[in-house]
Amino acid sequence: MSRLSVRVLSKLGFSREFHELSLAQRVQISQGPLVITVALLCLIFAALMPEILTRPLFQTGLVLLAVITVAAAVVPWDRLWYPSYWILPILDFAAIGYLYAGSLGLAVGIYLLSIFPVFWLAWSRVSAVGARILSFLGPLAIVWNPVFASAFPVTGQRLAAPILAPLLTLAVAVTVTVMRQDMAAQQAALRLKDQQLENALNQSTERSELLDGVLNAIDVGVLVVSATGSAVHKNNSMQTLDDRIRPAGMRHTQERDLLFFAADRTTALPADQRPVARAMQGESFHDVLLWAGAPGDQMALSCSARILRNEEGFNGAVLAFNDITPLADALRAKDDFVSNVSHELRTPLTSIIGYLDLAQEEAEDTGLTGTIPHAVAVAQRNSERLLRLVSDLLTAASGSVALDPRPVAVAELITAGLRSAGPRAAAAGVDLTSSCAPALAVQADPVRLAQVLDNLLSNAIKYSPDGGTVTVSAWTDGTSTFLEVRDTGMGMTEEDQKELFTKFFRTGAVRQAGIPGAGLGLAISKNIVEAHGGTISLVSAPGVGSAFTVALPQAATLPAADVPQDASV
User: Fold this and answer.
1) Whole-angstrom Cα distance, residue 314 to residue 305?
2) Nearest CA to 258 among 303, 271, 321, 282?
3) Which residue has the higher pLDDT, 304 or 491?
4) Please, are residues 452 and 486 in contact by the beta-carbon 8 Å criterion?
5) Three-class secondary structure of residue 253 per DSSP
6) Distance, CA of 389 to CA of 520 (rounded, Å)
7) Which residue, 81, 148, 345, 432, has fewest beta-carbon neighbours within 10 Å?
8) 274: nearest Cα among 266, 285, 235, 215
9) For residues 63 and 78, what is the distance between their CA atoms, to the nearest angstrom?
10) What angle do CA 459, 416, 510 make, to 5 degrees?
11) 3-state secondary structure at position 365
12) Counting runs of H as helices and runs of E as strands, what totals does the chain give?
């Protein structure tokens, strides 16, 4: 319907679209235009041509139209067979015929009133073909009735003269039915799309509620930020977390205002190192440890971020904050326990080793033979091993490494390390080789770097139970110095490599083989290398062997007198 019709219906008290009204209401509305038009004509005729109103045929037409209008208003068309209301537009043709016959000779064009029932029939949903037939035959009967009813002979000329009107109403009927069918198809398509949209909206709502339920059921804070960095969604845990890390007295804060601290728990994190800021730079990260909250009520958070992308690129990020304060406290308590026990063990061990040294010297001086000197040597060797283990425990527990950097000749370092590992390698059937330029040097702590090399050599020999070759190589690319220890031993899986530098970790294959060790050497070596600003990496495969590579960033130059003449072993 047109906007004018919609406004008219609204003024009449119909707030719905025409097709949404009941059949009785549609019948009443469809009869209305014809009645209104005829009423206006009667007013005009009463003023200008009152004699028309006195003609019996014209009066019959008015009475019939009034009866039809009353029937349209009072008959319960909703309860009858649906096409039964077509009787009204058909009777309208009869009423218009009487009006037309009664106005001949005085008024012209009354037959044009037949356009109203034509529209009614054509717009109905009963039968498009039937509407077209009636839209032609009804007006044809109106214009031909005077021809057959007159005293003049019926000729082809008299029949053809008014034929244009039925043809026009037929054309109108065809046009209206086509438009109605097209609009009906569009309405059906719109209803289908509306249903699809409603279903999609319901599914989206259900999924959103399900997602909210899942996110609120976990004790991990989840924050979703948009491409501009504004918060899009927070679960309940994140809301609670927000309240704890927000400065007192502040209700609306930016990330730079929140109480985030570095590992020392006192240094505030720089703005560009905070989780959301890093995510907005397009960085994904996992299990980043930071401390949050006011001093005295801080908690340890493990933070991870994943970047969201669409066709246009960066589209925000999802961040997860996990409160690991109990775990951090437990780890600190464990380190404190290990440190305290190690300190308590070191003093008596040092005393035991000292007395064993004295006992061994006295046995050598007195020429004592038998099982006692051998037992003293075994006790001394195991005491020294236990002291090294205690020292490793103290180093691992402290987490900090004191350095005394100086230029170190890498070739001398390798030579000393291979010489120290020689007896163990010979006992295990392992060949030791090396490759290093004599003038190669690095700025490092020689004692700590030797400790790293000893740990790597010890592991390479230990984890080559069937013999093989261990090769130590060193080289530089101009800016960094590289030290590699490669073996042909048992190797390890990718899963084991992920945990290899964790304190006390030992692979399943090593435990099954019964190879001794505490799982601290590589963790200590990693701390030492990172304290130098370097990195340690690993390439390994089961049954092939392993290659550990230490990269140190600071090269150095040795004085000419300190350059070793032979760096091969």
Assistant:
1) 14
2) 271
3) 304
4) no
5) coil
6) 9
7) 81
8) 285
9) 25
10) 5
11) helix
12) 17, 13
pLDDT digits (tens, 9 = 90+) for 304-353: 999 999 888 888 999 999 888 888 777 677 666 666 666 566 667 777 77
Distance CA 310, CA 299 (A): 35
Global pTM exceeds 0.70: no
DSSP assignment, residue 247?
P
158: left (phi over 0), alpha (psi -120 to 50) or beta: alpha
In this predicted structure, which of 135-139, 514-518, 555-559 has the lowest mean pLDDT? 514-518
Query: At a CB cut-off of 8 Å and minimum separation 6, what does 298 contact?
Result: 261, 265, 291, 292, 325
CA distance 331 to 321: 19
DSSP SS3 for 499: coil
Confirm if 116 and 33 have CB atoms less than 8 A apart. Answer: yes
Residue 453: Cβ within 10 Å count? 24
Residue 568 has pLDDT above 60, yes or no: no
Q: Which of 506, 523, 564, 519 is nearest to 398 (CA)?
A: 523
Q: How far apart are alpha carbons 494 and 542 in whole angstroms?
A: 9
Opening angle at CA 521, ends 517 and 525, nearest 5: 170
SS3 assignment for 48-66? HCHHHHHCHHHHHHHHHHH
Give the up-direction half-sphere exposure of residue 102: CA atoms within 13 A in the CB hemisphere.
23
The residues facing 435 across adjacent strands are 473
Measured CA to CA, the distance from residue 343 to residue 341 in angstroms comes to 5
What is the Cβ-side half-sphere exposure of residue 447, based on CA atoms within 13 angstroms? 4
Strands (E), 376-427: 406-409
> Would you tell me how many other CB atoms lie within 10 Å of the CB of residue 144?
17
If 0-12 CB within 10 Å is exposed, 13-18 middle and 19+ buried, where does residue 448 land?
A: buried
Residue 349's H or E segment, with its range, is: helix 325-366
Rounded Cα distance, 141 and 117, in Å: 14
1: DSSP letter: -
> Do β-strands 468-476 and 430-435 pair in parallel, antiparallel, or remain unpaired?
parallel
Whether the Cβ atoms of residue 45 and residue 52 lie closer than 8 Å to each other: yes
Query: Is 115 in contact with 38 (CB distance < 8 Å)?
Result: no
Residues 259-270: tens digit of each pLDDT:
888 877 788 888
Q: State the Cα–Cα distance between residues 215 and 321, nearest whole angstrom.
A: 12
Instruction: Specify whether the backbone of 399 is left (phi greater than 0), alpha (psi in -120 to 50) or beta.
Output: left
Pull the structure tokens for residue 424: 């163990």
CA angle at 93 for the pair 91 and 96, rounded to the nearest 5°: 110
DSSP 19-58: GGS-HHHHHHHHHHHHHHHHHHHHHHHHHH-GGGGG-HHH
Q: State the helix-helix crossing angle for 87-102 and 115-123, rounded to 10 degrees.
A: 170
Tokens of 521: 């050497």
Which tokens sit at 520? 């601290």
